[in-house]
Design a protein that fits this description.
This protein is mainly alpha-helical. It has one domain. Helix content is 70%, strand content 0%. The protein is built from 5 helices and no strands. Helix 1 runs antiparallel to helix 2, helix 2 runs parallel beside helix 4 and helix 4 crosses helix 5. The longest helix has 32 residues.
Length: 163
C-alpha cells in the first residue's frame, strides 16, 4: 500500500511539473503573439511549442525527435493560423496585436495538454495521431484562452522547473 501511495505521489509530482512547463511556455507564447510581425511571430511561437514538447518528452522519458515533434505540432496547430490576421494591411496589424496573445497562448496550452494526455497513456511522438486529438485540442484551446484572459496570481518569471 505504501508503494502505491509513493507511485501516486510521483504521478502527481510529474503532472504538476508538466503543468508548470505548459504555463511557462503559454505565457512566453502570449508575449510573442503580441508582436506585430506576421511571419516572425508564428515561427517564434512554433519554436516555443517545440521546446515545450521537448521538455514534456524529457519529463515523461519519451524519446524526442525534432522532426517528429515539428510535424505533430504543425499538423495539429496548423488550422489555427496565428499570423494570418496580421497579414491584412492596416486593420490586420491592430487586430492581430489584440488577438495574437490569446491565440498563441491558447494554442500552446492546448498543445501541451494534448501531449500530456498522450504521454500519460503511454504514447510517444511516433504514435501521436494529430487527427485523433483535434477534438481534445479544440476544448483545451478554449480553456487556454480563458486562462490567458484571467489575471494570474503568480507571474511566469517566478516559476522554476526542477529538471
Amino acid at each position: 500500500m505504501a508503494e502505491a501511495q509513493g507511485v501516486a505521489a510521483f504521478e502527481e509530482s510529474r503532472q504538476g511539473k508538466a503543468e508548470r512547463i505548459i504555463k511557462r511556455q503559454m505565457w512566453i507564447s502570449a508575449g510573442i503573439g503580441a508582436l506585430p510581425f506576421p511571419i516572425l511571430d508564428g515561427v517564434a511561437v512554433t519554436s516555443v511549442q517545440l521546446w515545450m514538447v521537448r521538455d514534456l518528452c524529457r519529463l515523461y522519458n519519451v524519446p524526442f525527435s525534432r522532426e517528429w515533434a515539428k510535424e505533430s505540432i504543425l499538423s495539429l496547430v496548423g488550422g489555427f493560423a496565428r499570423s494570418a490576421l496580421k497579414a491584412i494591411p492596416g486593420v490586420g496589424a491592430i487586430a492581430g496585436a489584440l488577438t495574437g496573445p490569446a491565440l498563441s497562448a491558447g494554442s500552446t496550452y492546448a498543445l501541451g495538454k494534448v501531449f500530456i494526455q498522450h504521454f500519460e497513456s503511454g504514447g510517444t511522438l511516433l504514435t501521436f495521431d494529430p487527427r485523433g486529438m483535434r477534438s481534445y485540442f479544440k476544448g483545451y484551446y478554449q480553456e487556454g484562452q480563458r486562462q490567458a484572459a484571467e489575471p494570474q496570481r503568480q507571474t511566469p518569471a517566478t516559476e522554476h522547473s526542477s529538471f
